[in-house]
Amino acid sequence: MSTDTIDTAELGEKIVKVLKTIYDPEIPVDIYELGLIYDVFVNEDYDVKILMTLTTPNCPVAETLPVEVEEKVKSIDSLKDVEVEITFDPPWSQELMSEEAKLELGLL
């Protein structure tokens, strides 16, 4: 294995672990289980792009949550740059939540 190959699966797991420490202030479930994270891209330069949404466009944490995601993911040593992009396409719905989140919120 050459030294310039990164283990994206391992890095992905680290990123997910960090994402699971970030909570939506109105719902007692982390943003990953809520389905707010649509995609995580990592390139060979250790740059990360996170595509995420918010529960609503006028979410009270619309300004702070993406910053928190960026700051916390940036704390992973091997990463160079982290960019968080917010999208509302597709809009978030309860369907995107994991079984665990639905159970936690009494929706199952």
UniProtKB/TrEMBL annotation:
<feature type="domain" description="MIP18 family-like">
    <location>
        <begin position="13"/>
        <end position="86"/>
    </location>
</feature>
<dbReference type="InterPro" id="IPR014291">
    <property type="entry name" value="SUF_FeS_clus_asmbl-assoc"/>
</dbReference>
<dbReference type="Pfam" id="PF01883">
    <property type="entry name" value="FeS_assembly_P"/>
</dbReference>
<protein>
    <submittedName>
        <fullName>FeS assembly SUF system protein</fullName>
    </submittedName>
</protein>
<dbReference type="InterPro" id="IPR034904">
    <property type="entry name" value="FSCA_dom_sf"/>
</dbReference>
<dbReference type="InterPro" id="IPR002744">
    <property type="entry name" value="MIP18-like"/>
</dbReference>
<dbReference type="InterPro" id="IPR052339">
    <property type="entry name" value="Fe-S_Maturation_MIP18"/>
</dbReference>
